[in-house]
């Protein structure tokens, strides 16, 4: 019976993950440590009291070192030397260091088979998809998730030889306090699909970043689709080309202006128009950036 620890289970996705796990057969899912920074969530209390001892509350503020140490001690004690199988880092706020929340798993899971850390990320933190989310103005959120992605890869490299699996999961745009009511999916759907991924986690996924799979959403219109695909954390071929062509274009424009001089504005515009037409023919999808580069919008 596998054991689980979820951070930030008082509400939102964390609570839904604990609820989903608790609904699965006890042969598959054993103890669920639903952690929360305060013991004040009526919904979590309800889940705990209906769970016949399977869901246990552990008070844990992931940004407070003392709280992390206390929670770690308590969880180890409760597991009686059996170690934790799955750590789900769901709370958005995190203090990232090996003495932080990972410590709970790293210290206690040595004897376990699973040893998996699931870091809840978002496609908004993928540099490769930055162009898709240009209009979503939340730079700080995107940056912290991009950092989480890189950190997860660092842990994956560092602990691979000890059999740990670090996997990043994007849970979809969910109707929670954070996601808002206009979000794509009910939080229960996101939780169900994340749990599907968690239960299949294996060392072959170490260091990867995956999206949930929601039938019917594989080719959805708009920015979000949920096809269970691997998400690129870093710069993609598209972003590479995008940056390369933009840099090239800006260089050509600077040279043109220097050569023709601002006095010959008709000549400058004619050359810019030619460059635009040539490049648009060759690079189709880069049309918008080229237009912006030329001040045509
Ligand atoms: N919702 C979405 O559309 C969406 C999309 C992609 C990724 N995600 C990610 O999914 C995760 C959960 O998001 P959510 O939508 O469920 O957010 P949420 O509804 O705002 O819930 C956040 C949870 O994190 C807890 N928390 C905050 N600071 C904490 C701390 N210092 N220590 C421990 N717990 C803390 C909160 O506890 P309190 O009740 O005590 O405040 C609450 O339980 C986040 O990592 C988020 O980035 C969400």
From TrEMBL:
Query: Which family does this protein fall into?
Result: Belongs to the short-chain dehydrogenases/reductases (SDR) family.
Q: Name one GO molecular function term.
A: oxidoreductase activity
The protein's superkingdom reads: Eukaryota
List the record's Gene Ontology CC terms alphabetically: cytoplasm
Q: Which is one Pfam family of this protein?
A: adh_short
Q: Give the transmembrane ranges.
A: none
The UniProt entry, under InterPro entries, shows: Fungal_SecMetab_SDRs, NAD(P)-bd_dom_sf, SDR_fam
Please name the source species. Penicillium cosmopolitanum
Protein name as annotated: Uncharacterized protein
């Amino acid at each position: 019976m596998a054991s689980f620890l979820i951070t930030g289970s008082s509400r939102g996705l964390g609570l839904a993950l604990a609820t989903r796990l608790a609904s699965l057969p006890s042969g598959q899912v054993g103890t669920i440590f639903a952690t929360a920074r305060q013991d004040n969530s009526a919904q979590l209390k309800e889940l705990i009291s209906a769970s016949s001892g399977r869901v246990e509350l552990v008070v844990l503020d992931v940004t407070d070192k003392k709280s992390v140490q206390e929670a770690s001690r308590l969880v180890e004690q409760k597991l009686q030397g059996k170690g934790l199988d799955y750590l789900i880092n769901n709370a958005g706020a995190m203090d990232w260091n090996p003495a932080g929340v990972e410590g709970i798993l790293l210290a206690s899971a040595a004897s376990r088979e699973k040893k998996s850390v699931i870091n809840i990320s978002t496609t908004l933190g993928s540099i490769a998809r930055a162009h898709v989310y240009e209009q979503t103005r939340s730079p700080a959120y995107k940056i912290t998730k991009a950092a989480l992605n890189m950190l997860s890869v660092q842990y994956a490299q560092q602990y691979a030889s000890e059999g740990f699996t670090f996997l990043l999961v994007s849970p979809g745009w969910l109707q929670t306090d954070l996601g808002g009511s206009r979000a794509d999916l009910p939080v229960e759907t996101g939780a169900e699909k994340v749990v599907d991924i968690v239960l299949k986690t294996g060392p072959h996924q170490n260091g990867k970043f995956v999206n949930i799979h929601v039938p019917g959403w594989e080719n959805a219109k708009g920015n979000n689709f949920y096809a269970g695909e691997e998400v690129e954390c870093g710069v993609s071929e598209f972003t590479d080309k995008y940056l390369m062509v933009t840099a090239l274009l800006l260089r050509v424009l600077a040279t043109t202006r220097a050569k023709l001089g601002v006095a010959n504005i008709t000549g400058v515009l004619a050359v810019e128009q030619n460059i635009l037409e040539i490049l648009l023919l060759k690079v189709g999808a880069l049309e918008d950036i080229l237009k912006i580069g030329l001040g045509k919008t």
